[in-house]
Amino acid sequence: MSAYYYQDANGHNGAQYQQQSYNGGYPQQYPVDDYMVPEEEWEREAVLDPAWERQQKKTFTAWCNSHLRKVGTSIENIEEDFQNGLKLMLLLEVISNEQLIKPDRGRMRFHKIANVNKALDFITSKGVKLMVGAEEIVDGNLKMTLGMIWTIILRFAIQDISVEEMSAKEGLLLWCQRKTAPYKNVNVQNFHISFKDGLAFCALIHRHRPDLLDYSKLTKDDPLGNLNLAFDIAEKHLDIPKMLDAEEINNSIKADEKVVMTYVSSYYHAFSTTRKAEQAASRICKVLSVNQENEQMMAEYERLASDLLEWIRKTKPWLENRATDNTLHGTQAKLGEFRDYCRSQKPPRLSQKAKLETDFNTLQTRLRLSNRPAFTPTEGKLIANIVDAWKGLELAEKGFEDWLLRELRRLERLDHLAKKFQHKCNIHEEWSYGKIDLLTSSDFKRCSLNDLRALSRKHLAFESDLAAHQDRVEQIAAIAQELNVLGYDQIAMVNQRCQQICNEWDQLGDLTHKRRVALTDAERIVERIDSLFLEYAKKASPYVNWLDGAREDLVDMFFIHTLDEIRGLIEAHHQFKATLGEAGAEYKNIIRLEISAKWNDVQALVPQRDQDLETEFIKQQQNERFRVQFAQKANVVGPWLERQHEQLQQLTVQVVGTLEQHQKKLESMEHSVLQYRPHIDELEKYNQQIQECMIFENRHTPYTMEVIRVAWEQLTTHLTKQIAEIKNQIYTLEKKGIGEEQMNEFRATFAHFDKSRTRRLDPKEFRACLIACGYNIRDDRQGDVDFQRIMANVDPTQTGFVTFESFLDFMTRECSEEDNVDQLTLAFKTLAGDQPFITAEALKRELPIEQAEWCLRRMKPYVGPGAIPGAYDYKIFSAALYGESDL
Amino acid sequence: MDNSLFPTVPVFLDRSSLDQSWGFRLQGGIDYRLPLSIKKVSPNTPSHNKLYAGDGVTAINGQDASSMKHEDAENLLRNALQIQLTVRRGQLAAVRPSRPPVKFGASSQPHVNSALQNTTTPNNYRRF
Fold it and tell me: Are residues A799 and A832 in the same domain?
């Protein structure tokens, strides 16, 4: 730092630290201290340059008023208003922030002198040697008064600007030079010339508050404009009253450096105040943002909880609904809806539920760590409520699925049975058509013996036929019975038809008997037996019957579920085909038209049956392929999920490495798990194929889709929870200001005394624990008292136990003894310009707009001395933020 | 909890008007997980020399304060000209350890991570 030269009022040049006695008479008697130099200078002058005197008066008055206004007073005439010493004392109190001795109340001269002396004594007590006497001030000596004020300014406003151990003046100059360095057209070398064109003032403002002026538009050519601009802006936005006269500064060859220094020092303080204000504002913002985040989390929790509960409320009735249209198709559609629900509706809801739980825990942790009250959700939205509702939902789901599958099986069987019933009935009715008429005909009354014998034989054949049909009718009845049991919806019609058939059957039986009797009677009259015919009849009817049976069986519907069954049927069919050969041989012996017709039918049906069986075989093969496909995939996915579960369980029980490392491990696991999702989707596709083919068992794998789905959901939920847990722990450490090692020590200590592994200590265990932590809890009455006192703090709600959280809070409470309330209050006080209340404008000016509005919503109006409308009480607010109240 | 060793004393305070402050700062309450207690006392106030920083408040006007919310306690105190507090002296006075703590070797047992977990949500899952 180069030394600088100045010219004094009489045009003498001199380097610093050197002073010449040019005013004759007064020797240099005092040790030369840095800031004393200017004072000596003025003291020696007999006459103050009138211009400078004017400037000083104006500037110093303005400076005094900028401070006096804080206590609601001001001066107009600097030499008069300080005469009685009272305002002088006030000024000193304001700028020093200290209390002076009480002034004497009285109007007499000696009172005034006493008061002025009190002020001067105070100044002296701050290490200033004064050359002015109280009388001179009381007498209104302008020069002396100005000199005294300058001393005060130097001591209280400029001396503190000690930059790198220089004199105050040097320090202030250096500060100006540093701040204006980037501005090429500004060159600060001294106080009486360098500031004349006004650019230096503008640069200082622009450097700290570029939003206040556009420096690029300024030039040297308009010094008056620059000066006025700077003074205006400083007054309006920086709260620095105008202390200099632009014309005076501009017109004088050399400005009075004292006044310039006074004004510049105000800039210095304004911008350092800005720094202080910035610090205060950021401290406030930090505190508030924690609260705002917490409030947001609480609101989000409530919203999610309502949403989830509402969805559960809407969905449960659907799952409990057992209405059915009793058709296979309708029920299958319902199953499809259910699968859709499981696949697309439920997973996001499951994540929502997991998120609610983790958010709740995180929120409580954060609240606890910021000394805020615990969060109680509104009634009905507690975690317990949500868990209950969810359980109810899952129960309903299971019931629904089981019911659907049962229904499908039932309806499928019904479908098959009904078809079988129809078919058998049709065939029977076809057979029985016209029989009654035949049986009741009296065609035998006019027959020859041969004819009669024929009729009789015919009847016998019919009787065999009837007998052979017996079990067919019984089958029909059996099917009808089963349809009843299974609750076939068109059972009325079935029963009716069955009844009809049975009645008819009974009737047939009855009629047959009657005819037999009639014929036998007739035969007894007419004797004729054609043994060949009889033999023929006996042969033909079972054959016909066999053909009918064969025909029916060939078109019998089959109810197949496994490959083995179909193989059995195919085998039977082949055997049947083999018998055809034999039957064919027999056929050649017994040729009748109807038999030939029936034979042709059977022949035609065989290839059809071949084809049907073939189709079914292919279908079963495909089913088997689907089973295998699913099984192969499931046998890979299932074990993978099991391994992930194990890995996660390991990570849950033990933290290896630092918490951050652990968190990274969990997060990378979560990432790789999520990437596995496509495999699960593929498995779902295979599963869908299987369900569409109505396959219910799969012996190739022990895993079902439901099992895999559940395992997947559990895995993702568990991961989310663990990650949140670790984050909370890291956050706890940050907030508590303790390291991981210390936290682990706390944990180890606690665990050591938690013999019962209940994660809490009873009083005896806790007492031992305290002693281990180094607390002196003696085994006597005093020790008991001390212990009870600690217990009352650690367990304020008197549960009788100490949880790890309470233990941790207690041990770390010592670490953060700072008074948060006072610090916050101080921060607000800074922003409020040292006043006991703060205005909305000040809040909006100093804080980001959302924080300001947040405060305004919660702050109470200030009631107290000096209250103005629109004043808010920040003390109560700050205390309330920490759960304290001043009463 | 046996509090026989830790007796309470009654403290009577009165003031001339509701505008005059009692002169102490109240902290705690059941919702803040801290006992209701006095944080600091200002001089030249009705509570000066009657209440001290660190005193615990166990009852207000006979009502048990151990399960009171901060706001409720505050309201009881704000709107009264006379109050009777039951106070446990020095309840929150800091007790400091006088010896360094014993270290429990963490290497002998795995870190019981679960100690810090919230006990209301058990960490179990179903193996299949």
Answer: no
Other beta carbons within 10 angstroms of residue A757's beta carbon come to 9
Residues A405 and A439 in one domain: no
Domain edges within chain B = 10-88
pLDDT band (50, 70, 90) for residue A561: confident
Q: Is residue A714 part of a domain?
A: yes
Q: In chain A, what percentage of residues exceed pLDDT 90?
A: 15
State whether A225 and A332 are in the same domain.
no
Question: Does A21 map to a domain?
Answer: no
Assess if residue A612 is contained within a domain: yes
Both A244 and A367 in one domain: the answer is no
Range of the domain at A871: 822-881
Instruction: Give me the mean pLDDT over the A105-134 stretch.
Output: 90
Q: Does domain B10-88 have CATH number 3.10.20.880?
A: no
With respect to residue A42, please indicate whether it lies within any of the assigned structural domains.
no
List, in sequence order, every residue forming a beta bridge with A873; answer none if it has no partner. Answer: A860
d(C-alpha A682, C-alpha A741), whole Å: 46
Q: Mind listing the pLDDT tens digit for each residue in A856-870?
A: 988 988 887 777 888
Beta bridge partners of B64: B59
Q: Which residues make beta-bridge pairs with A786?
A: none
Instruction: Identify the helix (H) or strand (E) that includes residue A838.
Output: strand A838-839
Supply the Cα-derived Rg of chain B in whole angstroms: 21
Q: Buried b vs exposed e over A723-747: b needs ≥16 C-beta within 10 Å?
A: bbbbbbbbebbebbebeeeebebbb
CATH number at A755 reads 1.10.238.10
Q: Which residues face A100 on adjacent strands? A: none
Under a CB-based contact definition with an 8 Å cutoff, are residues A838 and A858 in contact?
no
Interchain contact, A707 vs B128, CB within 8 Å: yes
CATH code of A487's domain: 1.20.58.60
Quick check: A67 pLDDT over 70?
Answer: yes
Q: Kindly give the residue spans of alpha helices, DSSP state H, lying in A737-780.
A: 740-753, 763-772
Say yes or no for a CB contact (<8 Å) between A793 and B32.
Answer: no
Please give the distance of CA B85 from its chain centroid, rounded to a whole number.
14
DSSP for B19-63, written as a single string: TS---EEEEEEGGGTEEEEEEEE-SSSTTTTTS-TT-EEEEETTE
A446 and A521 assigned to the same domain? yes
For every residue of A137-168, DSSP letters joined together read HHTT-HHHHHHHHHHHHIIIIITT--SSS--H
- Chain B CB contacts of A371 under 8 Å are 32
Q: Is A13 helix (H, G, I), strand (E, B) or coil?
A: strand
Whether residue A113 is found in the same domain as residue A219: yes
Q: Helix count (H) and strand count (E) of chain B?
A: 1, 6
Structural domains counted in chain A = 7
Considering the domain architecture, whether residues A634 and A756 belong to the same structural domain is answered as no
Are B39 and B27 in contact by the 8 Å Cβ rule? The answer is yes
Nearest to A64 by CA among A48, A52, A50, A82: A82
Q: Looking at the structure, tell me whether residues A296 and A386 fall in a common domain.
A: yes
ipTM passes above 0.85: no
pTM as predicted:
0.55
First vs last Cα of chain B: how many Å apart? 46
Which of A371, A759, A775 faces B115 most closely, judged by CB atoms? A759
B1 with A814: Cβ contact below 8 A: no
Q: Which residues of B fall within a CB distance of 8 Å from A883?
A: 27-29, 31-32, 34, 70
